[in-house]
Amino acid sequence: MIQMEIGPIWDTCDFLSNALLFAGQGTGYADLTRPPFLSFLTSLFFRLGYVSPTVIFALDGAIFVFGVIGFYLLLKIRFSDMESLLGALLFSTFPIVLLFAGFGLTDVPSLSFSIWAIYFTVLAVKRNSKFFYLAFPFFVLAFLTRYAIAFVIFPMLIYILINKRFVKYIRDILIGIFVSFLSLIPCLLFFYSTFGNPLYPFSTFFGVTTTSSPISSENFAYHPNLFYFILKSPVYIGTVGFIFLLIILFGFFIFTSIKLKKGDLKVKNHLKYYFNVKNNFTKLKILIILLLIIIFVGTFGKITYMLSELIFFALLWFSYDLLKNIDIKNMDLNLLFLSWFMAFFIFHSVYVMKDGRYFLTMTPAISYFLILGLREVSNKLTFGLKNKHIILYLFTIFLLGMMLLSTTCYLLDLKKPQSNIELINEDMISASHWFVNYDADYKNKTIYSDEWPYTGWYLKMHIGMMPIFRDNQKFYCGVKDYSFNSNDNTAFNNYLDAENVDYYFCVRKGLNLTHYKPIKQFGDVVIYKKN
Fold this sequence. Notes:
Helix content: 55-70%
Distance between the termini: 43 Å
Strand order of the largest sheet: 2-1-6-8-7
Structural class: alpha/beta
Number of helices: 21
Strand content: 5-15%
Largest sheet: 5 strands, mixed
Order of helices and strands: HHHHHHHHHHHHHHHHHHHEHEEEEHEEE
Number of strands: 8
């Protein structure tokens, strides 16, 4: 409901325009390099006559709920019902999750599908290998919803490989991959007919996410700091997440202090106790692990993210092989969630474009470890209690109350930081309605816009993309194009003249357009007409 009041943002308008095209109602504007699945689902409702941004908001919200259910079921494999419920609620009430749930973007839906892909992978390994028939197709659905979610394949593969029985169910793995490929074929055929290359959108995405991509440092999302998401994490997980962390740290501090006073805390030499360190093969494993740690830390951010991913997951593989003899319950699940977190942390930290919504991919793993820490603390603080679960019950009641209070306050204030989105929507709607009546033949005119997805959606026609000119450079969405050479103000005039533009929807201030005059203004949106 809040998102319906705010309206769609730039990216959402692109997905909506693509949905119109898929529904056979294309307007001439579409961005088919974007992942297609959410737009495809939206197009099914457009075909039924429900052409409105509300459709994509509702779909986004419904898939979010579907993902929360999947996360609860995933946690139940390790935790009790109450702990799993608490973990699912924690995940779903993180401020960063609430902010983008129902937003009409692909981040939350792709995360929901990836949760189910992980869940079915665990079920396939632990219970029945035929669950691979669902795990890999859900991975493909997640990938076709947002290309960057493809990195979830790393935790899936790590979990399969460390449970070395995978050789026994290799047949079901291959069938699952084959079924997922069948679901991918229609998409590949569509891309082939559109671009002449079935892999073009995928190659475009992975091309622009390399560290050498020419991203402008003035882009709002440009953040080269490798630890950006670590520094921002308290904001993203919110007050309740931070309280979880404090309880865990305080609980372990109390437990350790009591044990030290009683003299019960004994530290063992684990290498000597669990391993035969005289074994040369064990020594080699330890040496490889130390070497991989040094290489990973020393090269992080200095090499392509894909190499860092491979180095880290090789490190996990050797670590599990070394530690598997230690009696650590569910170590495979711990490594699964660690690899899940690191797969996306590595990618999004190395890639210079950073946005809060990219942190969404790390939230399930964070929720898992916070619940794990809370359970360990509650188990260790049960001295002399007959009902050993009372501490966990008290923690749960307190934290649920905090979640309800925090979420209510956050939702009440959710519109405030997005008021600029609401204003640009209102201004663009007003400008579009006025413009349709101003020029009845507008669909036969050449129109460019600074906010072309908005203008294209509201006018239901092809809109030219107006670049930004700065310091003798031309930018499209922050990406440099070195082919243009002119000063800023002259560049806008020359570009509009060169493209023979009839109308220009502008949100840029201070322009002096010699061959164009403003004919109407709605808030920040100014409509220019060629003299």
